[in-house]
Amino acid sequence: MAEQNIARLLAQRSFTELGARGRARALLDAGSFRELLDPFARLMSPWLPKQGIVPQADDGVVVAKGLIDGQPAVVIAIEGAFQGGSLGEVGGAKIAGALELAAEDNRNGTPTRAVLLLETGGVRLQEANLGLAAIAEIQAAIVELRQYQPVIGLVAGPVGCFGGMSIAAGLCSYLLVTREARLGLNGPQVIEQEAGLDEYDSRDRPFIWSLTGGEQRHASGLVDGYVADDVDAIRSELHGLFAKGKPTQERSRRHAWFLQRLRAVDTAVQADAAAVRSAYQGA
Amino acid sequence: MTTAQEQRGLHWFQALAGAAQQQPGLPASLRVADGELAGQAVRYLAVIADANNPFPRARNGEVGLLEGWGLAQAVDEAIEADRDNPHKRALIAIVDVPSQAYGRREEAYGIHQALAGAVDAYARARLAGHAVIGLLVGKSMSGAFLAHGYQANRLIALRDAGVMVHAMGKAAAARITLRSVDELEALAASVPPMAYDLDNYASLGLLADVLDVEQAAQPTAADLARVQDALGRALADIAASPRDLRNRLGAANRAASSQVREALRAQW
Prior knowledge:
The structure holds two protein chains of two kinds. By secondary structure, chain A is an alpha/beta fold.
């Protein structure tokens, strides 16, 4: 048994250790990867240099077309290592534009599906309102594309998925997480700033993972799959979900169910992981 | 000058919806009523302060768990009610939202998913042929604005210092970007997307209309007439336009958003 485990561990290829480009390549069928607006297109943030910040030639977003399980696909990967994966005007427009074109493909009879690799703190505050506007357009495009083909989001870590992009994650047909992942609207520092240390201690990592970590989100039914940090496992999970097709009802449409459960919560006491799992049992 | 104390959203809701009956079955922090505008059926929606909100971090008009899912319900009910009706009622989101709710309960119970519920409903309504208008009468901040207003076919704002669109409050934004509030304000003065004032926001091309009013916090009869007139014009404009958000592109201060889309299309 131990030997088998060791063999399995040796065969694993870590997904989280890959950068955005490597992740997109790893998920597309071998030999099918084609990047759009690659770094040589030099579409960079027009706003960062004005603030003394060095821009990046892909603005931290990789858009790649190719095949997944033999079907046309676009993989959109956010680079968590550039500016915390934050979305500015250019990176945001790359994501929204790619999703809009995928929806257009479907209207014209090409069943392009999309995978979003979400490694992001949300809006890039140096481009604040243009990041926010782009995220609204990304959300609009997800809802549009989702009518035709599943849109699958994956939060692998280590950055996690926060801000307006966590709302975008909540719109996906399916959402996958690893143990490294965190998913939440407000970053810990912002909550501490706005609500105080007693409400949220941004330095207490076990506390933060217990509420917003991948395992907890899966146990509470707020995501669809909990995957190992392994390229083959993630690929096979994606293939399975695409084969399954669109969900009967997306999680973001279940207001009646969530409102019923939230109304039963005792809000006089502070929340913990167990209370959430119990409230959302059967999600 | 906090909009929470001013209750701008509530005042504009009362002015626009008049004596129309509140839709039942919704959280107390929502005001939702049906009416008629320019001869068309409309549903007005507002998020208001509720001192008795069961979630303590959502008592000042913030968009929290109940508000996100409640908006989803209110919009979804309109979609369902008009499913077989060729004339879909318009949805007027009256926007006066200081922020999303920041708290432990909110994160634990998945406020991101609640806000996704609201975004989902507004976006589906737009795609189903409901005209959706975001009427910005107060603060229009971050995730709260994404959930309530930002999926609209058209955004209309009052020209007033209390109307403000941004991704994060100043103090938190300064901490996250490792700057002082003074430094942040200096940068905001020269970088339009970082600014907190409406004129800079308008320069990004996201607004369909900016309206001058006498009393943004408590509308006069003339203010109401002017806003109703603008809403009527927007409804006519929406009826003759695509259901997507392309009308937001084109401003010089947002040129890269168009360039990226053109280049993507060329390589697609």
